[in-house]
Structures are given as structure tokens and as C-alpha cells.
Design goal:
The structure is a homodimer of 292-residue chains.
Chain A lengths: L5 E6 L4 E6 L5 E7 L11 H12 L4 E4 L14 E2 L4 H6 L2 E4 L2 E3 L3 E5 L2 E5 L2 H10 L7 E5 L4 E7 L2 E8 L1 H11 L14 H12 L3 H13 L8 H17 L7 E6 L1 H13 L4 E5 H14 L2
Parallel strand pairs in A: 1-4, 4-7, 5-8, 10-13, 13-14
Antiparallel strand pairs in A: 1-2, 2-3, 6-7, 8-9, 10-11, 11-12
Chain lengths: 292, 292
């Protein structure tokens, strides 16, 4: 138990966000920078951790995210699901006496394989803070969207869909790049894309029609980004909701993404509760720190 | 009619291939280089055409491919399908008296939109040379795979699947890049990927399992390229064969790609005839030249 407060950090591949929590668990200072794990040279993590203490104070550190991967500081091996906060606390890796890293969660049964690293803290945080029902289907959009089934206050199973990364690849490097520069907005075009994604199992073909429709004068190029985002997210929601389930549906993460997914889930005739991912992260990391 | 022979070129986005055909229609010289249309500066096409004549002789030119697009030399507007060789001949664009460009083909009906530019010459060539039945389903793999339904010696309808481009994006720029450096080979791993693509409508999720299986020790990283290629091609074949059809199935194009698709089509319990795309191109462009 760290009685005098601690520093929590969500340390990803390209960014990190660090928070100073006081003895009562309240966040009193924070910063974000571009020092993701890929920017830290081999052997440079002590120094990169020193940066955080220089900015937020000489406190114990509880780290989550890709910092615990095999490309990070010290590997915190995946905890197999079903996993709840107790399993995460038992799986902490300790690079030093005052630094701990939260493990990721893996799925490895019934011929299925999946991994998450970072999202698990938000999930157990929402469970611990009772922001979601004890049984819920949680969608966590990001580069790699996660659909997690929470049951008995644990992550029972989950599935990753590469929606965010595919959209970025198409936007940055594909024949659709010119067309995808526009802003993605929830509206009729986005929802049409969602419906096409919900209805069609042929997304790798539907994507090319984005370009063909513009070339043939059937669509405005300014609509292409919203349509394509809708198509990919609709496909994602079709996958995520494919098993009929009476559970509450929750979308957790950055608000600009949760709003897109919540709109897509509405097109699929379900209602989703939106939760701010940062709030869930702080709830989860605070609870984990109490268990140390 | 060009009685003393002519030069044919398949001029794409990143490459061009030019052939000298003699008075009898036989190919007597050829070359390929990297002067695709994107490497030619605005106003530079006369000079780029001059290059070809400097290498193959001062003959009339019949050009096909992206050279006729709105980023090419002179736009040859799409001919709507159904389209056969007569429609292509009527749609030739003439940048000069001795230079003609073959138009692409578009689909714009029943709410569907699609375009092709370059593949149509191979298709009408295979029809004219009677390499395929008058009714056939033709798969033309490449960056953007085309499934064309040929009926009454015309391209009746077609559909594009972005398989090749998606595989390249994943290989060059994605989280799977490290895993996809290996060679793609037809074998048990490739065929397992194909079966997963044929069975699953969830390719945007299946892709992430490639990484998860390696991380969890369930698959060898050296198998990832063949599996992923199989998964995308299996998805593609599922789309292409989705309408039950008694027609002959043909795979036309570069042999290293047609062999992958032919193997995938066999996994789907159909037999496919493989045709060399260059042979079909020469048959089509020769026939078009006779019609000038």
C-alpha cells in the first residue's frame, strides 16, 4: 500500500500519459507526451521513468500498457482470462521496489487466441467503480478495438477487431488516401456506411466502391471519410454483436471514438452506455494501487 | 488498320510494359520499366511516349491501363458494361493520329458502382482468342482483384476486391509487418487461411489473431505471411463465388498470383483454369488493333 500517493501511467506504443494521485486517490497533476515505448532506446527505460518523476514527484509508479510488453521495460506476462482485478494484482511485474507494471490479458482456449494490454485496467476500473453491470458487453474502440464480455466482475472473454488500424492504413497509404482526408462525422453518410457494414460480410469489396462511386459521380468525395469509417465500424459492430446477448452494452474509451461506436450500435438497434476511458483507467489503477 | 505492325503498351500506375508487334501480329520485341503514370510529370507524356518509340521503333501506338485515366495522358472515359471488344474499339481516345488509348469499363446500375482499367483488354483478348467459354466467371488478381462475369462474349458485370492492396498495406505499414516478411507459399498453412476466409465473415477480426497466435506460442511467425495471404484470398474467393453459378471459373493474370487463387478456389470445391495475363493482353490488343 502506497500511503503517500503514487504516479500512474498509461504507457503505450507511441504516447504516454502520467497522473499524480494523492493519498486520497485524487488526481492532482498529469501530463501527456510522445515518449511511447518505441521512442525509448534499449536500456533507456530508467531514464524515461526518471523523466516522469522529475515532472510529477518522487513517488512510487504503477504503469500499464505496452510498457509491459516484450518491447517494453520489463515484460509482465499475460494473465489468462477469465481475469478480474485480483488476477491483475497478482500478475504485477516489479522492475524495482517502487515500480510495478500491470500485466495484459490473454485468451487462449477453444482454438481462439487474443491479447489485450492497457484496456484491462479500464475494464476492471469500470467494474470496481460499479460504472457497469456485473455482466456487460464492453466495446473499447482504439487502434485495435476490443469487445470484452464481463461476467461475475471478470473479463470472461474478448475479441479484437483491427478497425482503427485499417482505417489509418487506408487513410495514410492506400488508393483511397486522397478521399479520406475529410473529417469523420456522425450523420446520414456515416450511418449509411454503418448499415452497409452491418448488412454485408464483404468489407474488402465494399471499400473499393468508395472510390468507384466518386469516379462515376455517384458520391461526393467529401463524404468518403464518414462513409468509410461507418463501413468499418458497422462491420466491427456486426462482429461484436454477433452472439445474441441480453447484457448491457457499454462503449468505453476516448469520447471522440465512443460517440462513433455508440451511433453505430444504435443503427444495430441496441443502446450503448458511453464511458470516458480516462475515468475508468484512474478508477482501475487506483484500486490496483490499494491492493499492493 | 496498322498494316506494318504497331507498339502495344500496358501502362499502369507504377510500371509500363511495351511490346512491338509485327505485321502478322507476332511480338518481336518488348521491354518493361518503372515509368508508370505517377512518375511522368504533367505535360511529359509526349516525351514518355517518345522513349517507347526510341526503343521499339517509329510505329503507331495502342495503349491500355491507367494511361487513360484522369491522371494519365488523355482520358479515355469508361465504357459502361455490358461491354465487349466492339464497345472498347468504339471508345478509343486519340491523343494523336498514330496513338490510341483503350477505355476502361464501368459498372453503374442497380445501386452498384465499380471500375476497371487495364484488365478489360485481357478479358476481351481471352474471349476473342476463345481461351475461355462464352460464359465464364473470370478472377483477375492484382492490387485490386476483379471478378468479371462474361456472358455472350461481353463483360456483363464485375466486382473489385481490395485483397492485394490490403495485403501490401498490412505488410508495409501495420502491426503485422514484422510477421509478414516471409514468402507466401501454397501449402497447409495457406490453405488453412483460405478455409478461415471462406468460412468467416469477420476478416477484420481474424487478421489480429495472426499476431495473437504468435505471441501466445500457438503459431510460428514464419507461417504468418502464408496464413494471412490465405485468409484474405479465401475471403476474396468467398465474395467472388457468392452467387451460385454454373459457369467455368477462370483465373487470369500473373502466374505467381493465379496459382494462389487457383489453390484457394480448389479449397472452395471449384476448379479453375489458369491463364497467363500477358498472353491474353496480347490477344486483346492485337484484335483491337485490327479493328482500327
Amino acid at each position: 500500500m502506497w500511503r503517500d500517493g503514487f504516479i500512474a501511467a498509461d504507457w503505450g506504443t507511441t504516447n504516454r500519459r502520467a497522473y499524480l494521485l494523492d493519498a486520497s486517490g485524487k488526481c492532482v497533476d498529469e501530463f501527456e507526451d510522445g515518449k511511447g515505448i518505441l521512442s525509448v532506446p534499449s536500456g533507456g527505460f530508467e531514464e524515461a521513468v526518471g523523466d516522469i518523476r522529475a515532472r510529477l514527484g518522487d513517488k512510487p509508479l504503477l504503469l500499464a500498457g505496452m510498457i509491459g510488453s516484450n518491447r517494453g521495460w520489463v515484460e509482465a506476462p499475460y494473465v489468462p482470462c477469465p481475469a478480474g482485478i485480483e488476477e491483475l494484482a497478482r500478475g504485477l511485474a516489479w522492475p524495482g521496489k517502487r515500480e510495478a507494471i500491470v500485466p495484459g490479458v490473454s485468451l487462449n482456449r477453444d482454438g481462439r487466441a487474443d491479447v489485450m494490454r492497457g484496456e484491462e485496467v479500464q475494464l476492471v476500473g469500470a467494474i470496481a467503480a460499479e460504472l457497469i453491470d456485473p455482466t456487460a458487453l464492453v466495446c473499447h474502440p482504439g487502434t485495435h478495438n476490443k469487445w470484452a464480455l464481463v461476467r461475475h466482475r471478470q473479463i470472461e472473454t474478448f475479441r479484437t477487431v483491427m478497425t482503427g488500424e485499417l482505417f489509418n492504413l487506408l487513410k495514410e497509404h492506400s488508393i483511397l488516401s486522397d478521399l479520406l482526408r475529410g473529417k469523420v462525422e456522425v450523420g446520414e453518410t456515416f450511418c449509411r456506411g454503418v448499415r452497409d457494414g452491418l448488412d454485408s460480410a464483404e468489407v474488402t469489396a465494399e471499400l473499393f466502391t468508395v472510390r468507384a462511386r466518386v469516379l462515376l459521380g455517384k458520391a461526393e468525395s467529401s463524404d468518403a471519410a464518414s462513409y468509410t469509417s461507418g463501413l468499418l465500424i458497422g462491420t466491427d459492430v456486426r462482429i461484436g454483436l454477433s452472439e445474441p446477448l441480453a447484457a448491457q452494452v457499454v462503449v468505453m474509451g476516448r469520447p471522440e471514438l465512443t460517440s462513433l461506436y455508440a451511433a453505430a450500435i444504435r443503427e444495430a438497434k441496441r443502446e450503448a452506455i458511453e464511458l470516458d476511458g480516462e475515468r475508468c483507467f484512474l478508477a482501475g489503477i487506483g484500486k490496483l494501487a490499494e491492493m499492493i
